[in-house]
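Exercise 7. Given the encoded structure of a 298-residue chain, write a plausible sequence.
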């Protein structure tokens, strides 16, 4: 009895420790079937292989990150003059016809991977880029850089970088579903058009501006702004009879930025091979949605 009376407090202490350990373990994330399921779901949600980490949009409404003195407080031009705006106005019949003509032109636009090496006048490309630069942008920061490459050796270096990363994308990063969805389009990591096309246009977004005094300037909605300019660029190319394919090679941005000697505030958003279609060019027989499939009238 004396021994039992001595051991009872010790047994009670051990029992309390065991119960407490089991309770804490049950509260740990992922230990219960429900917790494990939630952890798995979160992991699957975070796994987005199509998101290029170099393209994460770090736009902030306020200047954040780094030394505050690195950022400019505001533009020197505080009172911007406003001028009259009177664009041409068309009769309704002309408006309707122009809308039909433009739709007909743009409805012929296709992603073309078979591009002719035939030379294209450089002035045409310059005007196309100027047109893309008319896009709206957050606070009129114009956060885009269009790098036009025609040098054969540089184009080949770009192809080597892209094909090396794209092979890894197809074999590892993209996953079976994505590769399967692309199979009917007959695409792969071989990008011959990067050598053949007379021009490559690499579109970079500027995540922030760099002023002559070295300070940084916030670029609001920089990725959305540059994406709009890319849409106008595609329309401008279609307007002059040139073709392209919207290429967004994953994980090539840093290498291409270094190759093209672009500053660190620029991130590659899109790569467009540009030229005339090859004589034997083919495209998938795709159909576009009808109006009632893309528009909701309220």
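Solution.
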């Amino acid at each position: 009895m004396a021994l039992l009376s001595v051991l009872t407090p010790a047994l009670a202490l051990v029992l309390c420790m065991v119960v407490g350990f089991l309770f804490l373990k049950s509260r740990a994330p992922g230990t219960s079937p429900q917790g494990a399921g939630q952890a798995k779901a979160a992991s699957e949600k975070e796994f987005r292989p199509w998101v290029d980490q170099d393209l994460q949009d770090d736009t902030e409404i306020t200047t954040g990150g780094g030394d505050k003195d690195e950022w400019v407080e505001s533009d020197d031009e505080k009172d911007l003059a406003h001028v009259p705006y009177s664009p041409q106005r068309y009769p309704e019949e002309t408006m309707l016809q122009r809308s039909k003509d433009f739709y007909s032109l743009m409805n012929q636009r296709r992603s073309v991977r078979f591009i002719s090496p035939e030379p294209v006048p450089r002035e045409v490309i310059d005007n196309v880029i100027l047109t893309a630069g008319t896009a709206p942008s957050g606070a009129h920061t114009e956060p885009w850089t269009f790098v036009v490459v025609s040098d054969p050796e540089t184009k080949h270096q770009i192809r080597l970088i892209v094909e090396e990363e794209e092979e890894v994308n197809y074999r590892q990063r993209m996953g079976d579903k994505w590769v399967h969805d692309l199979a009917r389009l007959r695409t792969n990591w071989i990008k011959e058009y990067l050598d053949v096309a007379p021009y490559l246009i690499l579109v970079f977004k500027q995540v922030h501006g760099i002023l002559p005094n070295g300070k940084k300037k916030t670029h609001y909605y920089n990725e959305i702004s540059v994406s709009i300019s890319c849409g106008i660029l595609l329309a401008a190319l279609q307007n002059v009879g040139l073709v392209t394919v919207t290429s967004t090679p994953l994980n090539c941005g840093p290498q291409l930025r270094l190759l093209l000697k672009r500053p660190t505030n620029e991130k590659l958003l899109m790569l467009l091979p540009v030229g005339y279609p090859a004589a034997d060019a083919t495209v998938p027989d795709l159909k576009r949605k009808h109006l009632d499939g893309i528009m909701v009238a309220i």
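Remark. The mean pLDDT is 82. Students should compare their own answers with the one above.
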